[in-house]
Design a protein that fits this description.
The chain is of the alpha/beta class. It is built from eight helices and seven strands. It has two domains: 12-114, Rossmann fold (3-Layer(aba) Sandwich), CATH 3.40.50.720; 151-211. A hairpin with a 2-residue loop joins strand 6 (116-120) and strand 7 (123-127).
């Protein structure tokens, strides 16, 4: 499998299943998408900003829901294999991405896995095990969270510095070397972690050491 990132801003995600798995996936996608969760009952957990629709569509009615909502992704998270299969089929026939929570092998065209993620905007790190070991995914995600705290702030800082160096006409190779040095500098990471106002000045010192072109 090859990991890809997909922008769901302004899109609809249709999920079948109001259990814990459905709730977890609804929360995940509701960060960006308009999420509709269809289920005869819902667990007492947060579904984020998802819209919950109390209904119990059988396999024959699933395609109608897909047709009406026109989603970018269909999530099949019920405890009924026939309903999940109907959701997968309806999505595949319309060329829509689909995710089945009850099956971790033999994915056909358009079948996707939802990985464990670490988010520190604009940085997103995904950890996947092909759906075989959610426990391992969570464990690895926790390690990434600890190791790369402050990655979002580093991305913002180096993005700004990269543009400034480009505006100054610094050659490409020197620009790349300067940004690499900032990203790998323990002093810059420490300044970012402390929440002080110094990360930029520390980064500029690092760049000057590399290029000699900034004061």
């Amino acid at each position: 499998m090859i990991p890809l990132l997909h922008d769901f801003e302004g899109e609809t995600v249709l999920a079948f299943g109001g259990g814990r798995v459905g709730a977890r996936k609804a929360r995940r996608f509701a960060r960006e998408a308009d999420v509709v969760v269809v289920s005869p009952a819902f667990v007492d957990e947060s579904f984020g900003d998802a819209k919950r629709v109390r209904a119990a569509p059988g396999p024959g009615a699933v395609a109608g829901w897909v047709e009406r909502t026109d989603p970018a992704l269909v999530v099949a998270a019920t405890d009924d294999e026939a309903v999940n299969g109907a959701a997968e089929t309806a999505a595949r026939e319309r060329g829509i991405l689909h995710n089945r929570a009850d099956r971790h092998d033999e994915r056909g065209p358009g079948g996707v896995v939802v990985p464990a993620t670490v988010r520190d905007d604009p940085v997103v790190v995904a950890v996947g095990t092909g759906g075989t070991s959610p426990a391992l995914s969570r464990y690895l995600r926790e390690g990434v969270e600890s190791e790369f705290a402050g990655a979002g702030a580093m991305a913002d800082l180096t993005g700004e510095l990269r543009e400034e160096l480009q505006d100054r006409g610094l050659p490409v190779e020197k620009r790349r070397a300067a940004v690499r040095a900032v990203v790998r500098s323990p002093e810059v990471w420490k300044a970012l972690d402390s929440g002080s106002a110094k990360p930029r000045s520390v980064a500029l010192d690092v760049i000057e050491d590399v290029t000699g072109d900034l004061s």
